[in-house]
Amino acid sequence: MDDAPGDAVPVVMYATGGCVFCLLARRLLKKKGVAFQEIRVDRDPEQWDVMEARSGRHTVPQVFAGERHLGGYSDLAALDRAGELDAALGLSRPGG
Known about the structure:
Elements: E1 11-15, H1 20-31, E2 36-40, H2 45-55, E3 62-65, E4 68-71, H3 73-81, H4 85-88
Parallel strand pairs: 1-2
Antiparallel strand pairs: 1-3, 3-4
Domain Glutaredoxin: 11-69
GO molecular function: glutathione disulfide oxidoreductase activity
GO cellular component, one term: cytoplasm
């Protein structure tokens, strides 16, 4: 997806195949129109180590917007319900 708004920050999602929460996170990001890089940690064990070091967590998905750790799917959904996800993803300016 290369159609992200100009203010959008780079989004990375660490995921595995067959992970329901990864699927839900992917759907939510796509619904938001966010361009994101998906890193399949089940295919690259070194990336699993990177994910754990960056997030401090051992579960997938783990989503980052720039250097900010947004968390897993439940965290994304909570941010969305609170009206904070768009700003975290760089889709809108806080308070704007």
